[in-house]
Amino acid sequence: MQHSSRADLRAAIRPFEQPHAARAAWQLATSIGLYLALCTLMYWSLSFSYLLTLVLALPAGAALVRTFIVQHDCGHGSFVGSRGANDVIGTICGVLTLAPYANWARQHAQHHANWNNLDRRDTGADIYSTCLTVAEYRARSPRQRLLYRLPRSMMIANLVFPPLVFLLLYRFPFDTPASWTRERRSVWLTNAAIATLIAGLGLWLGFARVAMVQLPIVFVTTVVGFWLFSVQHRFENGAWLRQPEWSFDAAAMAGSSHLALPRILHWATGNIGYHHIHHLSPRIPNYHLAACHRSNALLRPANPLSLRRALGAGNLTLWDEELGRLVRFRDAKGPG
Question: In which band, very low, low, confident or very high, does the pLDDT at 314 lie, cut at 50, 70 and 90?
Answer without folding.
Answer: confident
